[in-house]
Amino acid sequence: MTTAASTATPSSAVADLIVASDLQKTFPNKKGEPVHAVRGIDLRVPQGEAFGLLGPNGAGKSTTMRMIACVSPRTGGELQILGMDPNLDGIAIRDRLGVVPQEGNLDEELSCRENLIVYGRYFGFSRKYCAAKADELLEFAQLTAKASARVSALSGGMKRRLTIARALVNEPDMVLLDEPTTGLDPQARHVLWDRLFRLKQQGVTLILTTHYMDEAEQLCDRLVVVDGGRIVAEGSPAQLIAQYCTREVVELRFTPGAQRQHEAAATALVERVEVLPDRLLLYTTDGDSTVEAVHQAGIPASSSLVRRSTLEDVFLTLTGRSLVD
Amino acid sequence: MSGALTGTPARRGSGAEQPRRSGWTYRVRVWEALMRTWRPYFWSTLGESIAAPLALLLALGVGLGSLVDRRGTEALGGVSYLQFIAPALLCAAALQAAFSESSYAAFDRFKWRRTAFAMTATPVTPAMVLDGTVMFIATRLLLSGTAYYLILLLFGAAGGPWGLLMVPIATLMGVGVATWVLVLSASLDEDAPGYFNLVLRFGVVPATLFSASYFPLDQLPGYLRPLAWISPLWHANELARDAAIGGLPWWQVGLHLVVLTVIVVVGFAVARQRFRRRLEF
């Protein structure tokens, strides 16, 4: 196997598919200060891992993904993808990546099958290979019945599935998914997760960005929480919850605005309290006894709920902000 | 089938073939994709490239031409009005086709359909997207130019055998203009104030009128003639007319060719940089 590039190394020698150190991206800005989208992040993703970049909009997730996808030159730090440098071997790297972009870029005027074939042709594959691969991938994406339907006639979930299928046309070493389920209804999200989970089972390395905590918990072996262009925490979903949260959370609902008056009383009961617009979150090891204590303290919540901690709580702890706002 | 869906980990060599990798393969594949997108429009384009010349040749060449020719053809260099305007009509058609393929159609791939971004997620680079796009536009111009030439033949307005050179001349001019419109398409965030319409109204249409298409340049007052010199269409008209009916000194032929070539080369270089800025940021 050969590539156009000089510094390419065989994949067998590469244990970590992504190695980034102090990776930075700064955009020049005509009207004033340059924008520091990524302010120095370190990553190491081994083969076969499902790795997540988690963070709110504007955290620098997509910019990082674009640098990994070799379509955005870094402005600082080091980056190795599949053992190669994107600045030198972009063609050889992209040849072995599958990319599912956040904004759809399927050709709406072509059929599902045609979209897969055209895309496969960009990699230099023969017509015969592309045709066979298209049929195989349509089946994987559960779109065989829609093979000759125009993309413009598909639902959002189907389009996203087709985009994922398209990203697999070159049997990539690594699939990059930028917010794969944003904007989909719950059922479509579950169908999509199921497909991604199958890929993961087959050992395909997945890199995904999301601002949905449940998505990260479902799919990621390991993740980093990104905020303001920096990594603020790293670990498996369970590790992060254990490290940054208590086991359970008591949610107390109030009429919006009223929650502030009871913050002090609640703080006396547990280690930590977060204030949301209509709620107080009480972090505790034992939810039921905390609810008991709340009633005894006479805090007049309109309702109370005990639940397990999630990554959402981790994020709240780390940044003091909610993820989706 | 094996590979991503059955193999672990997904690697080439088991089921996936080793692709041929060379810069030209990728450029040709971009061209191929654009040809495929054009396919549904092929017959309507072909119909247009036949109907438009038919209408223009009948109305201007035959209709208006009978009036013009009655007053003598010395001013036209001794050829009939039909023969005089035929090369210019072919070039004007190429200019319009070049504009339409490089304006909204190209902008669409950056802005609405975003398919240019799909291309560059693969080994294809921004420069290859440009190259393939220009190859596609050249193909399109050669095809519709040839159709136009055949219609001119039917009307006996295609000149001698050298008249066939009108097709590559018009294509060269069209590609030159297209590279510059592609620069605009790759640079615009929005088409909000209607930039493309401005180019059409204040660029393409006046160029068609003041490039010695319908009357010789010396019929214009001297101070208006420089308008033609800066029009790529005028240089193409002069060359195409020379190919069909002759009469141009060799040094002028050389000069027109140089101008058209410079437009292509510089336009291409600027477009390359703009495509890169649009697709790699």
From TrEMBL, chain B:
Coiled coil residues, start to end: none
Topology in membrane: Multi-pass membrane protein
Main subcellular location of this protein, as a coarse class: membrane
GO BP annotations, alphabetical order: response to antibiotic
Compartment(s) where it occurs, according to its Swiss-Prot or TrEMBL record: Cell membrane; Membrane
GO cellular component: ATP-binding cassette (ABC) transporter complex
One Gene Ontology MF term: ABC-type transporter activity
Signal peptide: none
Family: Belongs to the ABC-2 integral membrane protein family.
Name of the molecule in the record: Transport permease protein
Lineage: Bacteria, Bacillati, Actinomycetota, Actinomycetes, Nakamurellales
